[in-house]
Design a protein that fits this description.
heterodimer, A: 320 residues, 2 domains, 8 helices, B: mainly alpha, Cytochrome C Oxidase, Chain A, 29 helices, globular
């Protein structure tokens, strides 16, 4: 259906115009900064997500950046979701081997991750390698991260609502496993400590203290990994020794869904911190160049906060 | 008749029809045009290399305009798909029994019709329009995150495929079965389209064995991620990518609505995503989220509608943005009450999260909760009404032009008013309890989701067609198409409302035979909608090759009313660059609104006083004119009394009518008062709409109209020739009244001014 449009519109990407041929431009102000910087030239300011865009606001038609990674990401996500669905089909109806679904999901995940990695590399790492400054304000990235965290509140919200639903019902609905163990206490302390270390790592970056920055960031990464290990240990204890699983009742559903979702977030955060740590080793950051440190650290604090809430509501609140 | 084959054939029919139109249009264009139209265009055949380059181009693009077109194309495909579902639903309902397709098929159709339209049609098309036009309107280079933007789009095709795999698998299986043994294809036949209702209520959705439901849930989850990504991108774009010259005060209305829509989506969609996965776990891993012993089916309804009602506003707000953007262009007036439309948009955004439980009035939730949701649900009508009043006021005294977008805008306002007002009734608990399970609800929400949302998309497609293609569409066909669309929508969904009033339950594949003729009427209406959509396709494709080429960047004459907005300015620069068309200047420019008084704003008294003075003047002029007219009329009536065709006693009847004793004198007093007050005021209010330029002519028309009422009211027992005389004198008396009234008003220079500037 897009065929009728593509003829005349596809062609206007050629950067053929000059600033002199512009129309009267009645409307929003258009300055002629375009003449100062050669669009897309080697010295042009290159933004993290728009490598060719100069500061000129006028020329909508100079988008030469193309990317194959969005399509790869889409295909990968489709593979992952389709794979899960085929696995469920196989497990339920037995018309396909479930392994086929698992295989497709794994391939999909790999493609998905490759797509995301390609995108991150193209949009953020390549400009950083070229040591170009960024045109997009740091503030916009931080705000976007906040927007993402808002969506995350909502993502967690549905599960918390479920938990509150059953908590105000007949309680306890089943025999609960020992929730408040030393493991949870230690894990909580570890996660809070990691929030502190990432904060001071960021501070160290502002003070241009690279060694301290890297050291504290490395510590955060290690603490995150340890937390995940502790989480795995807790699951092991519950599932193998206590026989308490996702399907073992009203509380089990909520417990594993909430902690699992949170664990997934921690794992993503660990991945993010690993990338930031690696980029730190490459020397991508400085006191004025800390956008991704700021965004990842914001995310990490959020994950930490959710955990504290989770411990209070689910572990302590469940035991009471 | 296999449902899947019918559906795929219909889909193929639309697709092949579009393709044939496209090919025919291309081929015909190659012929030298006899009227010397566009003979210079040389026809090239597509080579394989070019096709490959085009595929690479469109799959790797990160340009906001191209992604916008991809979104629109995707949404259009989904719309055709969901539309065919709808046509089949209506066809099924032609007969009271389920004898065209089975009950199961009917359930599948209405499940997937709803989901396809809401999730895969509306939001993608609006996000496409937003992608294309938001950066142009904002003076931004592109969306804030161009690649993320593309990611958001490319998640949608797999999401749609997963969601509708049931039908794809069935048709693939049936086709393959012709060549390979059917036993190899069992996995294809294991999937059926879900038949659980688009709301996917537990426990039906959590216990139905159909494995396609898992695919559906995962597909919807993926599409939710895509929507969330797009929403984040829109917000960051509006907040951070604006041109320096554009602040919050002069941000255009479409960007405002997209911003609020995105903000709602930001909170609504992730919650749906989690709820969908919870349902998936319930279905496959024995969790108890929506099982009776756990959260219960009511929890699903809470979570679903916590997304579902905001979703209504997610898809409704961009339509209001388009209305607020397009309507002023075709009536030559600035949007009335811009600020209040923005406030109402924000108010809807906030309130939309506080009304969800009105979908659950019949589920037995706590009456106190119901009462508070009733209050918020009624309250949310206020901001919507603010919009409607502002749109109507925008048109008032405007220079309304007959064009397809105008018809669509005006039609939408009408349909939306009916859809909206019936919604207020449904928000009232006792009414809802009666009508919740009936077609009334179906009629109500379709008058909104059909009555304004797609209509505004069509309006946008016409309005921006010259900008998108550099050509004009076939305007006569467009007028016909849009009228047909409005008429078809009204016919279909008003009929559903009538069925609802008769309390026909919805959601059933069968119905009592008494309702058949109304169902047939609704089906005919839906076919009219379908026909108009086909005409739209034809117009869009054919005009792309054969439409009149635009020779100016201002095909809608926007410059002359100072409404030449940034996207058209962009188009003007593009035309100049590519085709050397210089910017045009209109012959005359006037402001698109009556400017407020310069200097400090008047006080409340200062604002009321001129209005009060005008009213007093009008009333005074009218009273004097009425007195003159009534006295002249009395003279004519006196002659009639003398001749004997008019009975003076009939005045006594008038006195009785208003509760006075039966006296001729009192009756005449009432008659005189009416002649001085009621009828002059009506004349002043309606005079502008009566035929004739001169006030004498309008006066005659007016008095002729009111004479009919008088003739009936004052008739006593005249028959035969007496009756003829009576009627002649009544008419004469009224004409002289009209002439006296209008002449006096004209003489005193009252409200009846010269034709307003809008009429020129």
């Amino acid at each position: 259906m897009n065929a009728p449009f593509d003829g005349s519109d596809g062609r206007d990407d050629e950067p053929s115009e000059t600033a002199a041929t512009r129309a009267d431009g009645a409307g929003h102000a258009r300055d002629d900064q375009g003449e100062l910087t050669d669009p897309g030239g080697p010295d042009g300011p290159i933004g993290p997500d728009s490598p060719h865009e100069p500061s000129d606001h006028d020329d909508h038609d100079e988008h030469e950046h193309r990317s194959r990674w969005p399509l790869v990401t889409g295909v990968g996500a489709g593979g992952l979701y389709g794979g899960v669905a085929i696995y469920l089909l196989g497990a339920a109806a037995g018309v396909v081997p479930p392994r086929l679904g698992i295989g497709l999901a794994v391939v999909g995940t790999v493609v998905l991750l490759a797509g995301v990695a390609g995108w991150v590399d193209e949009a953020f790492l390549a400009p950083a390698r070229e040591r170009a400054g960024q045109t997009k304000s740091r503030e916009s990235y931080v705000s976007t991260t906040v927007l993402f965290l808002v969506t995350d509140v909502s993502t967690f919200g549905a599960l918390f609502v479920y938990y509150f639903f059953i908590r105000v019902g007949a309680w306890p609905p089943e025999t609960l496993p020992p929730l408040l163990t030393s493991l949870v206490l230690v894990n909580t302390l570890i996660l809070i400590a990691s929030s502190v270390t990432i904060h001071y790592a960021h501070e160290a970056l502002h003070d241009d203290n690279r060694r301290r920055f890297l050291g504290l960031l490395g510590a955060t990464l290690a603490l995150g990994v340890i937390f995940l290990g502790g989480q795995a240990l807790e699951y092991y204890e519950f599932i193998i020794h206590e026989g308490f699983t996702l399907g073992s009742g009203v509380f089990g559903s909520g417990f594993f869904a909430l902690t699992g979702l949170h664990g997934l977030h921690v794992a993503l955060g660990v991945g993010g911190i690993a990338v930031v740590f690696w980029r730190g080793l490459q020397g991508h950051y400085g006191p004025e160049r800390d956008t991704s440190v700021a965004t990842v650290s914001l995310y990490w604090h959020f994950v930490d906060l959710v955990w504290v809430f989770l411990v209070i509501v689910l572990y302590v609140g469940g035991t009471l | 008749m296999s449902r899947a084959l019918v559906q795929v054939s219909l889909f193929a029919f639309v697709a092949v029809g579009c393709l044939l139109t496209l090919l025919a249009a291309r081929r015909l264009r190659a012929d030298p045009s006899p009227d010397g139209g566009y003979g210079v265009i040389t026809e090239r055949e597509f080579t394989v290399g070019e096709a490959k380059a085009a595929i690479v181009h469109w799959t790797t693009t990160t340009n906001h305009r191209e992604i916008g077109l991809l979104y629109i194309a995707f949404g259009t495909v989904a719309a055709v798909w969901g539309g065919i579902d709808a046509m089949m639903l209506r066809t099924h309902l032609l007969t009271p029994a389920a004898d065209i397709w089975t009950e199961q098929t009917y359930n599948e159709l209405f499940t997937m019709h709803g989901l396809t339209m809401l999730i895969f049609f509306v939001a993608p098309v609006f996000f496409g329009l937003g992608n294309y036009f938001l950066p142009l309107l904002l003076g931004a280079d592109d969306m804030a995150f161009p690649r993320l933007n593309a990611v958001g789009f490319w998640l949608l095709p797999p999401a749609l495929l997963l969601s509708r795999l049931g039908i794809i698998a069935e048709v693939t299986g049936k086709s393959l079965a012709l060549v390979v043994p059917e036993s190899w294809l069992s996995f294809l036949f294991a999937l059926r389209e879900p038949a659980i209702g688009w709301t996917m209520y537990a426990p039906l959705s959590s216990t139905s064995p159909d494995p396609q439901i898992n695919f559906l849930l995962l597909g919807l989850h993926l599409s939710g991620i895509a929507t969330t990504i797009a929403a984040i991108n829109f917000i960051t774009t509006v907040v951070y990518e604006r041109d320096e010259a554009i602040g919050w005060a002069n941000l255009d209305i479409f960007s405002w609505t997209m911003l609020v829509t995105s903000a709602i989506a930001l909170f609504a969609f992730p919650l749906l995503g989690t709820a969908l996965l919870m349902l998936l776990l319930d279905r496959n891993f024995g969790t108890t989220f929506f099982a009776t012993e756990g959260g219960g089916p009511i929890l699903w309804q809470h979570l679903f509608w916590f997304w579902g009602h905001p979703e209504v506003y997610i898809i409704f707000l961009p339509a209001t943005g388009l209305m607020s953007l397009i309507l002023p262009k075709f009536v030559g007036r600035k949007l009335f009450g811009f600020k209040f439309i923005v406030y109402s948009t924000i108010a809807i955004g906030v309130l939309s999260f506080g009304v969800w439980a009105h979908h659950m009035f019949t589920t037995g939730i706590d009456p106190r909760i119901r009462a508070s949701f009733m209050a918020t649900s009624i309250a949310i009508a206020v901001p919507s009404a603010i919009k409607v009043f502002n749109w109507i006021t925008t048109m008032w005294n405007g220079n309304v032009k007959l064009a397809a977008p105008t018809i669509l805008c005006v039609g939408s306002i009408g349909l939306f008013i009916v859809g909206g007002v019936t919604g207020i009734f449904l928000a009232v608990i006792p009414v809802d309890i009666i009508y919740h399970g009936t077609y009334y609800v179906v009629g109500h929400f379709h008058l909104i989701v059909m009555g304004i949302i797609p209509l505004m998309m069509f309006a946008a497609s016409y309005y921006w067609y010259p900008l998108l293609t550099g050509r004009l569409y076939d305007r006569r066909l467009a007028l016909f198409q849009s009228s047909l669309l409005v008429a078809g929508s009204a016919l279909t969904f008003m009929t559903l409302m009538a069925l609802g009033f008769l309390e026909l339950p919805r959601r059933y594949a069968t119905y009592p035979a008494d309702f058949q003729w109304l169902q047939v009427v609704a089906t005919v209406g839906s076919y009219i909608i379908g026909l108009s959509v086909l005409l739209w396709f034809y117009n869009m494709i054919w005009s792309y090759f054969h439409g009149e080429r635009v020779e100016t960047a201002d095909p809608w004459d926007l410059k002359s009313t100072n409404q030449f907005t940034p996207e058209w300015q962009w188009f003007e620069r593009k035309l100049e660059r590519e085709r050397g068309i210089p910017p045009s200047e209109p012959e005359e420019v006037r402001r698109s609104y009556v400017p407020a008084q310069e200097g400090k704003p008047p006080s409340l008294y200062g604002r009321i006083e001129p209005v009060a003075r005008t009213v007093a003047n009008d009333a005074g002029t009218g009273a004097v004119g009425g007195l003159v007219g009534t006295l002249l009329m009395s003279a004519v009536l006196a002659v009639a009394v003398v001749i004997g065709v008019f009975d003076l006693e009939s005045f006594a009847g008038l006195a009785v009518l208003v509760g006075l004793p039966a006296s001729v004198t009192l009756g005449y007093g009432v008659f005189l008062a009416g002649g001085m007050l009621t009828w002059p005021l009506l004349f002043l209010a309606l005079g502008e709409y009566l035929p004739g330029e001169l006030s004498f002519v309008t006066g005659l028309w007016f008095s002729t109209v009111i004479a009919s009422g008088f003739a009936i009211a004052f008739h006593t027992d005249q028959i035969g020739l007496e009756l003829v005389g009576y009627l002649v004198f009544v008419l004469l008396a009224h004409w002289i009244y009209g002439l006296g009234l209008a002449g006096t008003v004209e003489y005193l220079g009252g409200r009846h001014r010269t034709p307003s500037e809008g009429r020129r």
